[in-house]
Amino acid sequence: MDGLAIGLAVCATFCWGLTWLLMKVGVDRMDWIGFGFLRPWMALPFILLFAWLIDGFTFGSPRLVLIGVGAGLLNAVFGTASYYYALSKVSMHEANILANTNPFWGVVSSIVFLGEPARLVTLGAGALVLGGTYFLARRGKNDKHGRSLLGAIAALAAGAAWGYSSTVLAKLCLSGGMSPIAYQILFTGSAAIGWTVLALPRLRAGRLRFGRKDLWVTFGSSILGMFVGWIFWLLALQRANASALSPLISLTLLFAVILGVIVLKERITRRIIIGGALVVSGVLLVSVLAN
After folding, report:
1. At what angle do helices 80-89 and 148-163 cross, to 10 degrees?
2. Closest CA to 167 of 229, 233, 222
3. In the chain, what are the domain boundaries?
4. I need a labelling partner for 77 at 20 to 30 A (CA). Which of 155, 164, 213, 221 fits?
5. Is the confidence at residue 244, as pLDDT, over 70?
6. What CA–CA distance (Å, rounded) separates 17 from 23?
Protein backbone atom coordinates (compact mmCIF):
# COMPACT_ATOMS: atom_id res chain seq x y z
CA MET A 1 0.00 0.00 0.00
CA ASP A 2 1.08 3.58 -0.66
CA GLY A 3 3.38 4.74 2.16
CA LEU A 4 2.00 8.27 1.99
CA ALA A 5 -1.53 6.94 2.40
CA ILE A 6 -0.43 5.07 5.54
CA GLY A 7 1.23 8.20 6.92
CA LEU A 8 -1.85 10.31 6.27
CA ALA A 9 -4.09 7.70 7.94
CA VAL A 10 -1.81 7.54 10.99
CA CYS A 11 -1.90 11.35 11.28
CA ALA A 12 -5.70 11.18 11.14
CA THR A 13 -5.87 8.58 13.91
CA PHE A 14 -3.57 10.64 16.14
CA CYS A 15 -5.84 13.67 15.67
CA TRP A 16 -8.88 11.54 16.49
CA GLY A 17 -7.20 9.98 19.54
CA LEU A 18 -6.47 13.45 20.90
CA THR A 19 -10.02 14.44 20.00
CA TRP A 20 -11.40 11.55 22.09
CA LEU A 21 -9.41 12.84 25.06
CA LEU A 22 -10.82 16.35 24.61
CA MET A 23 -14.33 14.92 24.19
CA LYS A 24 -14.01 13.21 27.58
CA VAL A 25 -12.90 16.49 29.16
CA GLY A 26 -15.68 18.40 27.41
CA VAL A 27 -18.45 15.97 28.39
CA ASP A 28 -17.22 16.02 32.02
CA ARG A 29 -17.09 19.82 32.12
CA MET A 30 -20.31 20.86 30.36
CA ASP A 31 -23.70 19.84 29.04
CA TRP A 32 -22.99 17.25 26.35
CA ILE A 33 -25.76 18.55 24.09
CA GLY A 34 -24.19 22.00 24.18
CA PHE A 35 -20.75 20.51 23.56
CA GLY A 36 -22.04 18.60 20.54
CA PHE A 37 -23.83 21.72 19.27
CA LEU A 38 -20.73 23.92 19.34
CA ARG A 39 -18.25 21.53 17.71
CA PRO A 40 -19.51 21.48 14.08
CA TRP A 41 -20.29 25.21 14.08
CA MET A 42 -16.72 25.93 15.19
CA ALA A 43 -15.21 23.72 12.48
CA LEU A 44 -17.46 24.76 9.58
CA PRO A 45 -15.96 28.26 8.94
CA PHE A 46 -12.44 26.79 8.68
CA ILE A 47 -13.66 24.08 6.30
CA LEU A 48 -15.42 26.63 4.09
CA LEU A 49 -12.36 28.90 4.06
CA PHE A 50 -10.09 26.00 3.14
CA ALA A 51 -12.48 24.95 0.36
CA TRP A 52 -12.49 28.49 -1.01
CA LEU A 53 -8.68 28.69 -0.97
CA ILE A 54 -8.23 25.44 -2.90
CA ASP A 55 -11.36 25.78 -5.07
CA GLY A 56 -12.69 22.49 -3.73
CA PHE A 57 -16.45 22.97 -4.19
CA THR A 58 -16.94 19.83 -6.31
CA PHE A 59 -20.01 18.02 -4.97
CA GLY A 60 -20.94 15.69 -7.81
CA SER A 61 -24.44 14.31 -8.35
CA PRO A 62 -27.46 14.95 -6.08
CA ARG A 63 -27.22 11.32 -4.96
CA LEU A 64 -23.69 11.91 -3.70
CA VAL A 65 -24.81 15.04 -1.90
CA LEU A 66 -27.50 13.03 -0.08
CA ILE A 67 -24.92 10.39 0.86
CA GLY A 68 -22.59 13.07 2.26
CA VAL A 69 -25.40 14.63 4.29
CA GLY A 70 -26.47 11.21 5.57
CA ALA A 71 -22.89 10.41 6.56
CA GLY A 72 -22.70 13.56 8.67
CA LEU A 73 -25.97 12.78 10.46
CA LEU A 74 -25.01 9.16 11.06
CA ASN A 75 -21.42 9.79 12.11
CA ALA A 76 -21.28 13.19 13.77
CA VAL A 77 -24.79 13.29 15.27
CA PHE A 78 -26.01 9.77 16.07
CA GLY A 79 -22.56 8.18 16.50
CA THR A 80 -21.08 11.05 18.49
CA ALA A 81 -24.19 11.41 20.70
CA SER A 82 -23.98 7.69 21.49
CA TYR A 83 -20.30 8.10 22.36
CA TYR A 84 -21.01 11.06 24.66
CA TYR A 85 -23.61 8.98 26.48
CA ALA A 86 -21.13 6.11 26.82
CA LEU A 87 -18.55 8.46 28.33
CA SER A 88 -21.06 9.41 31.03
CA LYS A 89 -21.57 5.76 31.98
CA VAL A 90 -18.17 4.06 31.61
CA SER A 91 -14.52 5.04 31.71
CA MET A 92 -12.77 6.62 28.74
CA HIS A 93 -10.82 3.39 28.15
CA GLU A 94 -13.96 1.26 27.98
CA ALA A 95 -15.87 3.70 25.77
CA ASN A 96 -12.91 4.02 23.39
CA ILE A 97 -12.28 0.29 23.15
CA LEU A 98 -15.89 -0.46 22.28
CA ALA A 99 -16.28 2.50 19.92
CA ASN A 100 -13.09 1.41 18.19
CA THR A 101 -14.88 -1.70 16.85
CA ASN A 102 -15.72 0.37 13.73
CA PRO A 103 -13.61 -1.78 11.33
CA PHE A 104 -15.54 -4.85 12.48
CA TRP A 105 -18.90 -3.12 11.93
CA GLY A 106 -17.81 -2.15 8.43
CA VAL A 107 -17.55 -5.84 7.55
CA VAL A 108 -20.83 -6.67 9.31
CA SER A 109 -22.67 -3.96 7.37
CA SER A 110 -21.34 -5.33 4.09
CA ILE A 111 -22.77 -8.76 5.00
CA VAL A 112 -26.15 -7.41 6.11
CA PHE A 113 -26.74 -4.69 3.53
CA LEU A 114 -24.65 -5.78 0.54
CA GLY A 115 -25.30 -9.51 0.74
CA GLU A 116 -21.64 -10.54 1.04
CA PRO A 117 -21.05 -14.05 2.44
CA ALA A 118 -20.55 -14.47 6.19
CA ARG A 119 -17.08 -15.99 6.49
CA LEU A 120 -15.89 -18.06 9.43
CA VAL A 121 -13.29 -15.41 10.27
CA THR A 122 -16.05 -12.81 10.55
CA LEU A 123 -18.10 -14.98 12.90
CA GLY A 124 -15.00 -15.63 15.02
CA ALA A 125 -14.27 -11.92 15.19
CA GLY A 126 -17.85 -11.30 16.26
CA ALA A 127 -17.47 -13.78 19.12
CA LEU A 128 -14.30 -12.02 20.30
CA VAL A 129 -15.95 -8.60 20.17
CA LEU A 130 -18.99 -9.84 22.13
CA GLY A 131 -16.73 -11.54 24.67
CA GLY A 132 -14.74 -8.35 25.12
CA THR A 133 -17.96 -6.40 25.54
CA TYR A 134 -19.00 -8.74 28.36
CA PHE A 135 -15.77 -8.14 30.28
CA LEU A 136 -15.94 -4.39 29.74
CA ALA A 137 -19.57 -4.18 30.84
CA ARG A 138 -19.14 -6.51 33.82
CA ARG A 139 -18.84 -4.78 37.17
CA GLY A 140 -17.17 -5.79 40.40
CA LYS A 141 -18.45 -5.08 43.92
CA ASN A 142 -16.49 -1.84 44.22
CA ASP A 143 -17.28 -0.42 40.77
CA LYS A 144 -19.29 2.80 40.73
CA HIS A 145 -21.15 2.58 37.42
CA GLY A 146 -24.36 0.61 37.95
CA ARG A 147 -25.73 0.92 34.40
CA SER A 148 -22.59 0.16 32.48
CA LEU A 149 -24.36 -2.17 30.05
CA LEU A 150 -26.20 0.81 28.56
CA GLY A 151 -22.89 2.62 28.22
CA ALA A 152 -21.34 -0.40 26.50
CA ILE A 153 -24.24 -0.63 24.05
CA ALA A 154 -23.99 3.08 23.29
CA ALA A 155 -20.25 2.80 22.63
CA LEU A 156 -20.85 -0.14 20.29
CA ALA A 157 -23.52 1.86 18.46
CA ALA A 158 -21.04 4.70 18.02
CA GLY A 159 -18.50 2.26 16.58
CA ALA A 160 -21.07 0.90 14.12
CA ALA A 161 -22.06 4.38 12.94
CA TRP A 162 -18.47 5.59 12.65
CA GLY A 163 -17.24 2.46 10.91
CA TYR A 164 -19.88 2.45 8.19
CA SER A 165 -19.85 6.18 7.48
CA SER A 166 -16.10 6.83 7.60
CA THR A 167 -15.29 4.08 5.09
CA VAL A 168 -18.24 3.00 2.92
CA LEU A 169 -20.07 6.33 2.63
CA ALA A 170 -16.93 8.44 2.39
CA LYS A 171 -15.44 6.18 -0.29
CA LEU A 172 -18.69 6.26 -2.29
CA CYS A 173 -18.58 10.05 -2.40
CA LEU A 174 -14.88 10.32 -3.26
CA SER A 175 -14.98 7.61 -5.93
CA GLY A 176 -18.01 9.35 -7.46
CA GLY A 177 -16.03 12.54 -8.05
CA MET A 178 -16.73 14.58 -4.93
CA SER A 179 -13.72 16.48 -3.60
CA PRO A 180 -12.59 15.67 -0.02
CA ILE A 181 -13.28 19.17 1.24
CA ALA A 182 -16.74 19.19 -0.37
CA TYR A 183 -17.49 15.99 1.51
CA GLN A 184 -16.37 17.69 4.71
CA ILE A 185 -18.69 20.63 4.02
CA LEU A 186 -21.71 18.32 3.66
CA PHE A 187 -20.61 16.16 6.59
CA THR A 188 -20.02 19.05 8.99
CA GLY A 189 -22.93 21.16 7.75
CA SER A 190 -25.45 18.37 8.31
CA ALA A 191 -23.89 17.69 11.72
CA ALA A 192 -24.28 21.37 12.65
CA ILE A 193 -27.96 21.35 11.66
CA GLY A 194 -28.61 18.04 13.44
CA TRP A 195 -27.02 19.20 16.69
CA THR A 196 -28.85 22.53 16.49
CA VAL A 197 -32.16 20.66 16.38
CA LEU A 198 -31.12 18.64 19.44
CA ALA A 199 -29.96 21.76 21.30
CA LEU A 200 -32.96 23.93 20.39
CA PRO A 201 -34.96 23.28 23.61
CA ARG A 202 -31.92 24.18 25.73
CA LEU A 203 -31.17 27.25 23.63
CA ARG A 204 -34.74 28.52 24.00
CA ALA A 205 -34.65 27.96 27.74
CA GLY A 206 -31.26 29.71 28.04
CA ARG A 207 -29.76 26.67 29.70
CA LEU A 208 -26.52 26.52 27.71
CA ARG A 209 -23.65 28.28 29.46
CA PHE A 210 -19.98 28.02 28.49
CA GLY A 211 -16.87 29.21 30.28
CA ARG A 212 -13.67 30.26 28.53
CA LYS A 213 -11.93 26.92 29.22
CA ASP A 214 -15.01 25.08 27.98
CA LEU A 215 -14.84 26.96 24.69
CA TRP A 216 -11.13 26.20 24.22
CA VAL A 217 -11.69 22.47 24.87
CA THR A 218 -14.57 22.46 22.40
CA PHE A 219 -12.55 24.38 19.81
CA GLY A 220 -9.61 21.98 20.07
CA SER A 221 -11.77 18.88 19.69
CA SER A 222 -13.63 20.52 16.80
CA ILE A 223 -10.59 21.53 14.74
CA LEU A 224 -8.66 18.30 15.34
CA GLY A 225 -11.60 15.92 14.99
CA MET A 226 -13.79 17.51 12.32
CA PHE A 227 -11.26 19.47 10.25
CA VAL A 228 -7.62 18.37 10.41
CA GLY A 229 -8.21 14.67 11.14
CA TRP A 230 -10.77 14.30 8.37
CA ILE A 231 -8.54 16.08 5.82
CA PHE A 232 -5.78 13.55 6.53
CA TRP A 233 -8.24 10.63 6.33
CA LEU A 234 -9.96 11.69 3.11
CA LEU A 235 -6.63 12.35 1.41
CA ALA A 236 -5.56 8.84 2.45
CA LEU A 237 -8.79 7.38 1.02
CA GLN A 238 -8.00 9.02 -2.31
CA ARG A 239 -4.74 7.07 -2.46
CA ALA A 240 -5.82 3.65 -1.14
CA ASN A 241 -8.80 1.35 -0.75
CA ALA A 242 -11.04 1.80 2.30
CA SER A 243 -10.68 -1.89 3.18
CA ALA A 244 -6.89 -1.55 3.26
CA LEU A 245 -6.94 1.58 5.43
CA SER A 246 -9.69 0.45 7.79
CA PRO A 247 -7.39 -1.55 10.16
CA LEU A 248 -5.34 1.58 10.77
CA ILE A 249 -8.35 3.23 12.43
CA SER A 250 -7.58 0.96 15.40
CA LEU A 251 -4.55 3.16 16.10
CA THR A 252 -7.01 5.77 17.37
CA LEU A 253 -7.61 3.53 20.37
CA LEU A 254 -3.89 3.18 21.09
CA PHE A 255 -3.36 6.94 21.00
CA ALA A 256 -6.48 7.59 23.11
CA VAL A 257 -5.50 5.06 25.80
CA ILE A 258 -1.95 6.43 26.04
CA LEU A 259 -3.22 10.01 26.29
CA GLY A 260 -5.85 8.99 28.85
CA VAL A 261 -3.20 7.41 31.09
CA ILE A 262 -0.83 10.39 30.75
CA VAL A 263 -3.30 13.27 30.98
CA LEU A 264 -6.35 11.95 32.86
CA LYS A 265 -4.42 9.47 35.07
CA GLU A 266 -7.04 6.80 34.37
CA ARG A 267 -6.30 3.39 35.89
CA ILE A 268 -6.22 0.37 33.57
CA THR A 269 -7.74 -2.60 35.40
CA ARG A 270 -7.36 -6.30 34.65
CA ARG A 271 -10.96 -6.38 33.38
CA ILE A 272 -10.25 -3.59 30.91
CA ILE A 273 -7.06 -5.33 29.70
CA ILE A 274 -8.90 -8.64 29.09
CA GLY A 275 -11.92 -7.01 27.48
CA GLY A 276 -9.79 -4.67 25.40
CA ALA A 277 -7.55 -7.50 24.20
CA LEU A 278 -10.60 -9.53 23.07
CA VAL A 279 -12.18 -6.58 21.26
CA VAL A 280 -8.95 -5.51 19.54
CA SER A 281 -8.26 -9.13 18.55
CA GLY A 282 -11.68 -9.33 16.93
CA VAL A 283 -11.13 -6.06 15.09
CA LEU A 284 -7.70 -7.09 13.82
CA LEU A 285 -8.95 -10.55 12.83
CA VAL A 286 -11.75 -9.21 10.67
CA SER A 287 -9.73 -6.27 9.35
CA VAL A 288 -6.61 -8.20 8.29
CA LEU A 289 -7.83 -11.70 7.42
CA ALA A 290 -11.23 -10.87 5.95
CA ASN A 291 -9.87 -8.49 3.31
Report:
1. 150
2. 233
3. 3-289
4. 213
5. no
6. 10
